[in-house]
UniProtKB/TrEMBL annotation:
Record protein name field: SRPBCC domain-containing protein
InterPro entries tied to this protein: Polyketide_cyclase/dehydratase, START-like_dom_sf
Biological source species: Streptomyces gottesmaniae
Organismal lineage: Bacteria, Bacillati, Actinomycetota, Actinomycetes, Kitasatosporales
SUPFAM superfamilies: Bet v1-like
């Protein structure tokens, strides 16, 4: 198993950041990495995702929602069709921090192929960081406009 994690501090409430993270229809407006998500935000639901890595072609995959705690946590898990080869458990944790929100984005990779997927995992961390910056900008702009307060 291998885990990657990154965080960003956002000057907006956890509730407002949650609104941005769960408004999948708006992802193309601000999210350079996860370009499209469709599906319901409820445990057990299947999401269809399309990512656009900084280096490489778009990747389409399905994931199952594994945790939903409004304003606190969202997690989904997906992987290769053959169980045990390669999978990921991706999450967002929203923690109150200095009057705003610290968003921790992480993924736990598991399976036989993890050792040979090291460079892909490293690039995934870079793409999470690419996503964090515009998430901060989008949420802070909404907070400045008075939305979600």
């Amino acid at each position: 198993m291998r885990e990657i994690s990154t965080y960003i501090d956002i000057d907006a409430s956890p509730g407002l950041v949650w609104e941005v993270l769960t408004d999948f229809a708006r992802y193309p407006d601000w999210n350079p990495y996860i370009r499209e998500v469709t599906g319901e935000i409820q445990v057990g639901a299947t999401l269809a995702l399309r990512t656009q890595p900084a280096k490489g072609r778009p990747v389409n995959f399905k994931a199952r929602v594994t945790a939903v705690a409004e304003g606190i946590e969202l997690r989904w898990a997906g992987g290769l069709p053959i169980p045990g080869l390669f999978g990921g458990d991706h999450g967002f944790a929203l923690n109150p921090h200095n009057g705003g929100t610290r968003v921790i984005q992480d993924e736990r990779f598991s399976g036989l192929l993890v050792p040979v997927m090291s460079s892909i995992i490293d690039r995934t961390l870079e793409n999470f960081e690419r996503m964090n910056r515009p998430l901060k900008e989008w949420a802070e702009a909404k907070a400045s406009a008075g939305a979600g307060r």
